[in-house]
Amino acid sequence: MNWYILVPVCLSAGALIGFTGGLLGIGGGLIAIPLLGLLLGMDQALAQGTALIMVLPAILLSVRHYNRRSKIDKRAALSGALSTVAFTWLGARLALAMDAGLLRMIYAVFVVGMSLYYFYQSYVLRHRLSVPRLDASVKATVYTRYRYLALGALAGTFGGVFGVGGSVLIVPVLVARMGYSQTQAQALALSMVIPGTVVALGTYSWHGQADWLVGIPLALGSIALVPYGVRLAFACSESRLRLAFACMLLLMVPLLLLSV
């Protein structure tokens, strides 16, 4: 595809992905990776590395706008971020050594599992009048720093292996086990994976698994609409937000399987 066609297409696709990523707190990589594989014929590792070019600025902007609306627990974010770095590097090295087809199939299974979990969470919320929340003081005393370190390690490993998805994995834990609302969990999870995303992008790029001609216009398009996605996230009910998340994840599976 010629660059003068590719760039406008990537700008438009990036804008749509950025809006969705801001809404769902995912950075947009879960959407970009299967599309890059299906439409541009990228193998899984190259698609993951290219998506990271878009994901990093989208995450930074999303965190900024989430924090404006609901202050992020900086101590928790820092604790999780510290452990993401080393584990992201290990996960990325593992992914680069794996067969591309196998990596894509594992990624598809991961996406299906996450979508089923969010369908369940949406169902639970729709049939419950209220969801108990823990206030900040309780969180500070009960959920000590090592728990956030463990979450950061988990997010880093999966983020390194799949290029993205680490924040998606720990959001359910923050919501179901640690008393955060959906938007609070999305904001905290994204802030935890920022340094790991930098490490992952550097690792994929160092091994030649990132297409900057595609990634940069995707990033520019993405950051244009991220704020509007975040705004809509705070306007939606939690059950609807989780249902939208689940549907989006499930829609990605056919794209992943088609691009195997």
Notable characteristics:
260 residues; cell membrane; globular; 83% helix; mainly alpha
Instruction: Classify the beta-strand content into a percent band.
Output: under 5%
Q: Work out the radius of gyration.
A: 17 Å
Number of helices: 12
Principal-axis shape = globular
Order of helices and strands: HHHHHHHHHHHH
Share of residues in helices = over 70%
Low-confidence stretches: 134-143
Annotation, overall tally of beta strands: 0
**Structural class by SSE content:** mainly alpha
Number of domains: 1
Average pLDDT taken over every residue: 81
InterPro entries: TM_pro_TauE-like, TSUP/Inactive_protease-like
Protein name: Probable membrane transporter protein
Transmembrane segments: 6-33, 45-64, 76-95, 102-120, 148-175, 212-234, 241-259
Subcellular location: Cell membrane; Membrane
Protein described:
InterPro entries: TM_pro_TauE-like, TSUP/Inactive_protease-like. Keywords: Cell membrane, Membrane, Transmembrane, Transmembrane helix. There is one protein chain. The protein contains twelve helices and no strands. Helices cover about 85% and strands about 0% of the residues. With about 260 residues, the chain is an all-alpha fold. Helix 2 (about 30-40) packs parallel to helix 12 (about 240-260), helix 3 (about 45-70) packs antiparallel against helix 10 and helix 7 (about 145-160) packs antiparallel against helix 8. It has one domain.
